[in-house]
Amino acid sequence: MQASLLDRPTFGDLAEYFKVTPPSVSGIVKKLIQLGYVKKQRYTEDGRVYYLVLTDKGKRFNQLHGEVHQKLAQRIIRNLTVQEIDELAGLLEKIT
């Protein structure tokens, strides 16, 4: 889950990071809360603002997700030459 890349993001932080509207983030976050992956924490200095925090379930999912990505990357590059890996890295940088 990308939210873990940000330290205690707000809804606005996520909207900016993913380049979507705050209402889009709100709907997705609501579903993630219902599924038990994240929880909202009220910001103490401004009661209108909420931080999002991964739950233990969310942390486990994020770890498994990372492991799957790592295994996939290893499979992809296993049979590539160093030059091909460099070219692939350059292409991936260009499109992200």
Outline the structure in words.
This protein is mainly alpha-helical. It has a single domain (2-95), classed as Orthogonal Bundle (Arc Repressor Mutant, subunit A). The protein has helices spanning 11-18, 22-34, 56-77, 82-95; strands at residues 38-42, 50-54. The chain has a two-stranded antiparallel ribbon. Helix 1 crosses helix 2. The chain is elongated and about 55 Å long. The mean pLDDT is 88.
CATH arch. level architecture: Orthogonal Bundle
Question: What gyration radius follows from the Cα positions, in whole Å?
Answer: 17 Å
Mean pLDDT: 88
Q: How much helical structure, as a percent, in the residues? A: 55-70%
Distance between the termini: 17 Å
Number of domains: 1
Unreliable segments of 5+ consecutive residues: none
Outline:
59% of the residues lie in helices and 10% in strands.
Provide the fold topology.
Layout: H1 11-18, H2 22-34, E1 38-42, E2 50-54, H3 56-77, H4 82-95
Antiparallel strand pairs: 1-2
Helix pairs in contact: 1-2
